[in-house]
TrEMBL record, chain A:
Highest taxon of source: Bacteria
Gene3D superfamilies to which the protein is assigned, alphabetical: Cyclophilin-like (2.40.100.10)
PANTHER family: 5-OXOPROLINASE SUBUNIT C, CARBOXYLTRANSFERASE DOMAIN-CONTAINING PROTEIN
UniProt xrefs under InterPro entries: CT_A_B (IPR003778), Cyclophilin-like_dom_sf (IPR029000), PxpC (IPR052708)
Assigned keywords, A-Z: ATP-binding, Hydrolase, Nucleotide-binding
MF terms (GO), sorted A to Z: ATP binding; hydrolase activity
Pfam families: CT_A_B
Name the record gives this protein: Biotin-dependent carboxylase uncharacterized domain-containing protein
NCBIfam families: urea_amlyse_rel
Domain Carboxyltransferase: 25-301
The species this protein was found in: Azotobacter beijerinckii
From TrEMBL, chain B:
Sequence ranges assigned to domain Carboxyltransferase in this UniProt record: 1-201
Gene Ontology terms for molecular function: ATP binding; hydrolase activity
Name recorded for this polypeptide: Sensor histidine kinase inhibitor, KipI family
Key words of the record: ATP-binding, Hydrolase, Nucleotide-binding
Length: 306, 224
């Protein structure tokens, strides 16, 4: 099989697809891209179906050499993109010829870039998905949950497309802005006092450097949380409040169950904005109703052909 | 019983405020039935001690429609007999030589032999599977062995470790951080993504442990 050879893998580059559905009852994390907006666009620009395997690149610093003629697309974090030293635009598709080197510098804004290839990377699935789960040792190029390494070959097939495509500017987020993350209140929210809930929405929270693909930890004036005892199933976007009062937003590599009190859930599209925030960025929360989120998510899934 | 929306793509069924011995098996039976009857509407069904979380496909349904579909099924399940099946029984060998065995014995004012006898003399029920792939929470541990979690969790607990905390016991299927007290080691693999099914235990199943010695452990040893 031919493909893209990994010369420099960057600090954390992970094969991802739509995630590992249908195994949560055995404790298997769903995984998948942290920023579904940017990932969906990268595939869409190449005419790939929803959830086609692509690479999530944290921070950048990647160099690949093409062993075939194909097309790629990059979306997400703004980083210098070059093919044999010649610059290429972000949020766009472009051709890559055999022998050419694709070089990605380090992100100037945003934290995760998505690299899709025409037809997708052809990798064997583990439990129905190629999503790389480093903690659980599942998925990825070798099926063992390892990130990309120098010397790996990302398998794909030759492809030729009619021309370059770009994401319309109004769909390109500004990752430099302080995000206002929309939250559906619920879960144990009723057990928090009115004053605590007000404090959650009124203050600016700071993203902790302790954050990762499992959970984004927020630092601020601590909330007084109620207690809860029996672990139950959780969803991506869940806002947990542990006893120290510093909220944790559960991300794609989350556990399947949790026992901490839940204040609500972040809008799935706003999780992408959260994932693009560097450590120490401040952010705020605002309320949204569940029906509005459902309408927007249906439109998003339909547009990208989920 | 309550139905609560969880985010924009899940619905939580809450059956009780406190777990009881028969509930996990009943929840498992309901999950099986919902999987069969609601098929593509549901993506993932996650049983908890007293709950069942349904991750649904938003392009096919939402929490209101799903609740309407569920009501007759739930009434039927609620009225039904408390499940004829007793849950499958797994008998799992343990080499009781864990790092914390002596400390647990001291903390519980028992001998090590008494700790082993109490732990292996109880039949447990799988109440939930979570935390990590194949990590089955087993209840209910004898009250004489109930201890709070360790003050500071270990950064690495070896795969196959048998552990206890509060009124629960479990085996760590993979090496991971963990705050429970280690009583022994299990030579069998409890999660293998290539096996069918990947995890031999299911919610509602019964588990008994029996003590083996080091020789038997090494002979069976499949855990790396």
């Amino acid at each position: 099989m031919t493909g893209l050879a990994v010369i420099r893998p960057g600090p954390l580059s992970l094969l991802q697809d739509a995630g590992r559905a249908r195994w949560q009852h055995l404790g298997v994390s769903p995984g998948g891209p942290l920023d579904i907006h940017a990932a969906a666009w990268a595939n869409h620009l190449l005419g790939n179906p929803w959830g086609t395997p692509l690479v999530e690149i944290a921070l950048g610093g990647v160099e690949l050499e093409s062993r075939l003629d194909t097309w790629v697309a990059l979306c997400g974090a703004e980083l210098p993109i070059a093919v044999d030293g010649e610059s290429r635009p972000n949020w766009s598709s472009f051709p890559l010829r055999v022998g050419q080197r694709l070089t990605l510098g380090f992100a100037r804004s945003g934290q995760r870039a998505y690299l899709a290839v025409a037809g997708g990377f052809r990798v064997g699935a583990v439990l129905g998905s190629v999503a790389t789960q480093t903690r659980e040792g599942l998925g990825g190029l070798h099926g063992d949950g390892q990130p990309l390494r120098a010397g790996d070959l990302l398998p794909c097939a030759p492809a030729s497309l009619p021309g370059m495509a770009s994401v319309p500017w109004r769909f390109v987020p500004d990752y430099r802005a302080e995000p206002g993350l929309r939250v559906i209140l619920g879960g144990d929210a009723g057990d928090f006092s009115v004053a605590e809930r007000r404090r959650f929405f009124a203050q600016a929270w700071t993203l902790s450097p302790q954050s990762d693909r499992m959970g984004m930890r927020l630092l601020g004036e601590p909330l007084r949380a109620p207690t809860r005892q029996w672990s139950l199933g959780v969803t991506t976007g869940t806002i947990q409040v542990p006893p120290d009062g510093q909220p944790i937003v559960l991300m794609a590599d989350r556990q399947t169950m949790g026992g901490y009190p839940v204040l609500g859930w972040v809008h799935p599209l706003d999780l992408g904005l959260l994932a693009q925030c560097p450590a120490h960025r401040t952010l705020r929360f605002e309320r949204v109703e569940v029906e509005a989120v459902q309408g927007e998510m249906r439109e998003f899934y339909r547009f990208f052909g989920r | 019983m309550r139905l609560e929306p969880v985010g924009a793509e899940a619905l939580l069924l809450v059956f009780a405020e406190q777990p009881d011995a028969g509930l996990p098996l009943r929840i498992a039976a309901l999950a099986e039935r919902l999987r069969r009857e609601l098929g593509p509407l549901l993506v993932d069904l996650v049983p908890g001690w007293t709950t069942l979380l349904l991750h649904y496909d938003l392009l096919r349904t939402d929490h209101r429609q799903l609740a309407r579909r569920l009501l007759p099924l739930l009434e039927d399940w609620y009225a039904g007999p408390p499940s004829s099946s007793a849950g499958r029984l797994h008998e799992i060998p343990i080499w009781y030589a864990g790092e914390d065995l002596a400390e647990v014995a001291r903390a519980c004012a028992l001998s090590e032999a008494e700790v082993i006898a109490l732990h292996s003399g109880t039949e447990y029920r799988v109440g939930a599977i979570g935390f990590a792939p194949g990590f089955a929470y087993l209840g209910e541990l004898d009250a004489r062995l109930a201890l709070p979690r360790r003050a500071s969790p270990r950064t690495r607990v070896p795969a196959g470790s048998l552990a206890i905390a509060e009124r629960q016991t479990a085996i760590y299927p993979q090496a991971s951080p963990g705050g429970w007290h280690l009583l022994g080691c299990c030579p069998r693999r409890l999660f293998d993504a290539r096996a069918e099914p990947p995890c031999p235990l299911a919610v509602g199943d019964r588990v008994r442990f029996f003590a083996i010695d080091e020789t038997a452990f090494r002979a069976e040893g499949s855990v790396p």
